[in-house]
Each structure stands twice: as C-alpha cells, then as structure tokens.
Amino acid sequence: MLKCYIGDDMIIDRLKKVGIFVLLFVLFLYSDLFYIIPLYLLKVDLSKLSYTAKLLGSNISSLILIGIIVLIYHKYLKEKFKDYKKHFNEYFDFGMKWWFVGVIGMVVLNLLITNFTPLKEATNEALVDDMIVKAPLLSFISAGLIAPFVEEMIFRKSFSDMFKNKWIMIIASGITFGLLHVVFSYNTLLDFLYVLPYGFLGGTFAYILSQKDNVLIPITFHLIHNSVLTLVTIISMGL
C-alpha cells in the first residue's frame, strides 16, 4: 500500500512539473497579450503603434512573465542564489569553460552550413539585427537581459524537472531551444539546419545545469552571450 502511495505521489509530482512547463511555455509564446489585451480594451489602434512602442510593450509583457516565473520558483531561486554566491568562483569557471565549448560548436556548425549550403545567415539573426537597428536600447534589454532569464527558466529548469535522465533532458532542451529560434522565422526547409547550432548552445547550457544543479550558471552565461553579441552589433552598426 505504501509503495502505491509513493508511486501516486511521484506521478502527481511529475504531472505538476509538466503542467508548470506547459503553462510557462504557453505564456512565453503569447506573452505579448499582456500588453495587447489592455490596449485593445482601451480601444487603442494597435496597427498605428510604432515599432518602438510595440517592442516596449513586448518588454513589459516579458517582465510580467518574469514575475510569474519568480512567483512559481521563488524558493528554488532563493536557495540557488545562496548556493551561487557560496561557490561563485567554481561555478563561474565551470560555466565559462562550457560556454566556450558551446560557442565553438555553434561557430563550427554555422560555418559548415554557410559553406556547404546556399544559406548565408539564420533568418532569426537577420530579424534580431533589424530589431537592433530600429530600437538599440530596447533590443539590448530584450535580447541581452530579459530573454536569457526567461529562456533558461523555461527550457532548462523546467526541462530538468520533467526529465530525470540527464541526457534525455540535454537533448530535448537543446532541440526545443534550437527549434524555437527557427520555426517562427524560417523561409525554406533548409533553414531548419540552424536548429543544430542553436541547439548545440542550448544543449551546452542544459549540460551545465545537469552538472551543477544551479540554473543561475547557464542564466549568467546566456546573459553574457546575448549581451556581448547585441553590443557588438550595436557598435558595428554605429548606432
């Protein structure tokens, strides 16, 4: 009887974790509704909003999503923040090493794609560059600061809760992360090759989490990665 109860508790716990992922994933996909719905109710003509206004609304919506994530995971984040401070040097060195591995893998895969296929740039990258040109500061906040926290909590932390097998978690997290950077912006089926470099970096972040059990490490290096790339783009374009 005891084994039965334990088994039921494990099933309920797993379903709860899957439910949290589904909830956050849906909110992630449709987070812009947090600003669109109030404006619609106020009878604001959304079609007349400037690009900057829309991006500002999107950033505000993402901050609301961050609030929801923190509300769900506040105990976990508080505990891991203390752990991160205590082992900062160890975690930073480990994260730095594997971030370099992820970047090298991403660069190599991108070079293979651009040299052996007609593709020259991921459509997602072109869209991000366009966003930076139109609104540099808001783009930096969105891509460099907000996205790393949201994406790591959903596609690393939630995945690590759902999949107890380390390698299944890493592969599933990497593939999902890669697909999300392609599926909403692809022009041809060949564009799905870019799932590989994005997925490699995402899988590397998942590996970091699996080894140290602290999501703040991949958040740190995802933030560094995105911030550096965004700043380089801003500087190179003279914005």
Short description:
The protein is mainly α and 239 residues long.
Describe this structure in words.
The structure is a single chain. This protein is mainly α and 239 residues long. It has one domain (2-236). The protein is 82% helix and 0% strand. The protein contains 9 helices and no strands. It has helices at residues 2-29, 33-41, 51-86, 88-116, 123-134, 136-162, 166-180, 195-212, 216-236. Helix 4 packs across helix 9 (216-236), helix 6 runs antiparallel to helix 9 and helix 7 (166-180) packs antiparallel against helix 8. The radius of gyration is 19 Å and the shape is globular. The mean pLDDT is 92.
Any descriptors?
239 residues; 9 helices; mainly alpha; 82% helix
Order of helices and strands: HHHHHHHHH
Largest sheet: none
Distance between the ends: 67 Å
Query: Could you estimate the helical fraction of the residues in percent?
Result: over 70%
The 3D shape can be described as globular
Indicate the radius of gyration in whole angstroms.
Answer: 19 Å
* Strands, count: 0
Layout of secondary structure:
Elements: H1 2-29, H2 33-41, H3 51-86, H4 88-116, H5 123-134, H6 136-162, H7 166-180, H8 195-212, H9 216-236
Helix pairs in contact: 1-3, 1-6, 2-3, 3-6, 4-8, 4-9, 5-6, 6-7, 6-8, 6-9, 7-8, 8-9
